[in-house]
Amino acid sequence: MNWKSGIVMEEFLWISSLMAVSLVCWWTDSSRLDLVRNISEIEGGDYGRPGLSHVTVASSLRDGFDEVEVWLQTFGPGTRTPIHRHACEEVFVVLKGGGTLYLAAASSSDDRPGTPVGFPIGSNTTFRIPVNDVHQVWNTDEEQDLQFVVVISRPPVKVYTYQDWNTKHAEAKLMFPYHWDRNFFTP
Amino acid sequence: MNWKSGIVMEEFLWISSLMAVSLVCWWTDSSRLDLVRNISEIEGGDYGRPGLSHVTVASSLRDGFDEVEVWLQTFGPGTRTPIHRHACEEVFVVLKGGGTLYLAAASSSDDRPGTPVGFPIGSNTTFRIPVNDVHQVWNTDEEQDLQFVVVISRPPVKVYTYQDWNTKHAEAKLMFPYHWDRNFFTP
């Protein structure tokens, strides 16, 4: 090896080291950056439900959460969830607006939900859905948006939907992966 | 039994039935009522940390949640958490204000957290704390309150606090039950 190729080799090693260090820094930064996210920059949508704005703030399938998932949802006037149930804990924190929670308590002797009870919900209230109780959240206000943070356990959510309150539990339809999980689901 | 005592007995049975029905309705209502709660009416406090307003919105020990717990916290300017870690998933949704998340990634080769990295947090951001990473949340803004919804898994929380970033992991102090859980804890 002459002195010229020696210098070339030295430069090559130096540049390689620099690239390796940059790569480590980049990796470190990018793995850190997703710790803090701007919610406005997280992709969301209406997922086929007119009047809905859903953002999965913390996702099981996308972000690797094993135990909790957090959603930010806004319902325009008249917008409602399907009648549904899921075998997880669920907590809502209402940030603005108002509406109605319809809930039919689960009973092992009934083969269908039956007529639900309506509970008014509003800004600065919190409500919870008992595991497997059939429920529906509805923005019954005619003007204001209804917005809440939703927390669920046991993600990703497995939703059983009911055509109406007289649909038999056995005939509820499993939706899995749920609409907003589909892009991140690998069978 | 003469006709008078027959009427008295009939009235007694009728009134008893009415009372029983009322009792069932009352029980049903009161067990339903706690599904929806006004957050302003849930007892909270500063729990010995000046500048803190903490409300346990959904509680493991108080409400019987097994898998998630939800807090609403407001930090006045300068208010901060202790330097701490916990073996659960944790997600923050920032509602208003700004501040800094300090975080030292867990590494099995280190016996202490060491110098943390600071991440700016602000309104409409979300951030997560990796399980067991040592961290501190600080309202570094000099004027505004910092408010967020906090979600944890595996409640009730078991917090290990550090005197400073050079405290050894082995010397971190277990706080259990944590301040806001003490009133609801039965050994």
TrEMBL record, chains A, B:
<dbReference type="Pfam" id="PF02041">
    <property type="entry name" value="Auxin_BP"/>
</dbReference>
<feature type="glycosylation site" description="N-linked (GlcNAc...) asparagine">
    <location>
        <position position="124"/>
    </location>
</feature>
<dbReference type="GO" id="GO:0045793">
    <property type="term" value="P:positive regulation of cell size"/>
</dbReference>
<dbReference type="InterPro" id="IPR000526">
    <property type="entry name" value="Auxin-bd"/>
</dbReference>
<feature type="binding site">
    <location>
        <position position="84"/>
    </location>
    <ligand>
        <name>Zn(2+)</name>
    </ligand>
</feature>
<keyword id="KW-0862">Zinc</keyword>
<keyword id="KW-0325">Glycoprotein</keyword>
<dbReference type="InterPro" id="IPR011051">
    <property type="entry name" value="RmlC_Cupin_sf"/>
</dbReference>
<feature type="binding site">
    <location>
        <position position="135"/>
    </location>
    <ligand>
        <name>Zn(2+)</name>
    </ligand>
</feature>
<feature type="binding site">
    <location>
        <position position="86"/>
    </location>
    <ligand>
        <name>Zn(2+)</name>
    </ligand>
</feature>
<dbReference type="GO" id="GO:0046872">
    <property type="term" value="F:metal ion binding"/>
</dbReference>
<feature type="binding site">
    <location>
        <position position="90"/>
    </location>
    <ligand>
        <name>Zn(2+)</name>
    </ligand>
</feature>
<keyword id="KW-0256">Endoplasmic reticulum</keyword>
<dbReference type="GO" id="GO:0051781">
    <property type="term" value="P:positive regulation of cell division"/>
</dbReference>
<dbReference type="InterPro" id="IPR014710">
    <property type="entry name" value="RmlC-like_jellyroll"/>
</dbReference>
<keyword id="KW-0927">Auxin signaling pathway</keyword>
<keyword id="KW-0732">Signal</keyword>
<dbReference type="GO" id="GO:0005788">
    <property type="term" value="C:endoplasmic reticulum lumen"/>
</dbReference>
<keyword id="KW-0479">Metal-binding</keyword>
<dbReference type="GO" id="GO:0009826">
    <property type="term" value="P:unidimensional cell growth"/>
</dbReference>
<keyword id="KW-0675">Receptor</keyword>
<dbReference type="GO" id="GO:0010011">
    <property type="term" value="F:auxin binding"/>
</dbReference>
<dbReference type="GO" id="GO:0009734">
    <property type="term" value="P:auxin-activated signaling pathway"/>
</dbReference>
<dbReference type="GO" id="GO:0000911">
    <property type="term" value="P:cytokinesis by cell plate formation"/>
</dbReference>
<protein>
    <recommendedName>
        <fullName>Auxin-binding protein 1</fullName>
    </recommendedName>
</protein>
<dbReference type="GO" id="GO:0032877">
    <property type="term" value="P:positive regulation of DNA endoreduplication"/>
</dbReference>
